[in-house]
Design goal:
two-stranded antiparallel sheet, transmembrane, rod-shaped, mainly alpha, transmembrane helix, 5 helices, single chain, 2% strand, 2 strands, membrane
Length: 225
């Protein structure tokens, strides 16, 4: 027969064992959870790093495209200004004096940018460790969108007004002036002035986007080192 004191000690041992088992289970669950969080965070960091690398490659491509355009766009701006000077000089116009500028400014040299990787990364929520980077990228995206809108307006205006206005007097395909009648008109002078204004606006914005992209590009490079 088990004595009362012995029975009570057994119950205490059972309770102790039970509590230890509960502790071990809770500890195991906690460790497993922490490990899962650790590996998930590590996975998210790798995914974010990969997304940042794609954004960097995209911005580098955009910067290269912008850089290649700058000289051509400055020449286009200067040619437009020179044509305006000829038109407002009051001297007798000749095909030889204006033909180069007339046909050259029919070009657009429009900047085209990529934003797929940028949009993808801004819509992710991997971690909160790069919130400052995302803020900079949001500002850059705003500049990209502004540049895109200006480019679309610029191209539309040049095609609609410049090309259409001279369609009966100038053969742009063969780069041949058929008549100087419209070219000498006040309407065309005003049109060229507006074109020059558009060239200046687009070039100023392109230069701003190019400059603002550089520190963002450097920050992206630092984050993936």
């Amino acid at each position: 027969m088990v004595k009362f004191g012995t029975s009570r000690r057994l119950k205490k041992n059972d309770i102790y064992t039970y509590l230890m088992e509960i502790f071990i289970v809770i500890f195991g669950i906690t460790v497993a959870y922490q490990l899962n969080v650790y590996y998930e965070d590590k996975k998210d960091l790798k995914l974010e790093e990969s997304a940042i690398e794609r954004v960097l490659s995209e911005i580098e491509a955009n910067q290269g495209a912008f850089g290649n355009l700058i000289q051509n766009r400055l020449k286009l701006q200067n040619d437009t200004r020179q044509l305006a000077r000829f038109l407002f000089a009051g001297d007798a116009l000749s095909e030889d004096s204006i033909s180069h500028y007339l046909f050259d400014i029919n070009k657009t040299y429009k900047p085209i940018m990529q934003m797929e990787a940028l949009n993808f990364y801004l819509n992710t929520n991997y971690t909160n460790k790069n919130s400052d980077l995302k803020s900079d990228l949001l500002i850059l995206k705003g500049l990209y969108l502004e540049l895109r809108d200006v480019v679309e307006y610029y191209v539309r205006m040049k095609e609609k007004y410049y090309g259409d206005f001279l369609v009966s007097d100038v053969d742009f395909g063969e780069e041949r002036i058929v008549s100087l009648e419209k070219i000498k008109s006040v309407e065309f002078k005003n049109l060229v002035v507006n074109l020059l204004s558009n060239e200046l606006e687009l070039n100023a914005l392109l230069d701003k986007v190019f400059g603002e992209s550089m520190p963002v590009q450097e920050k992206l490079e630092d984050r993936i080192r």
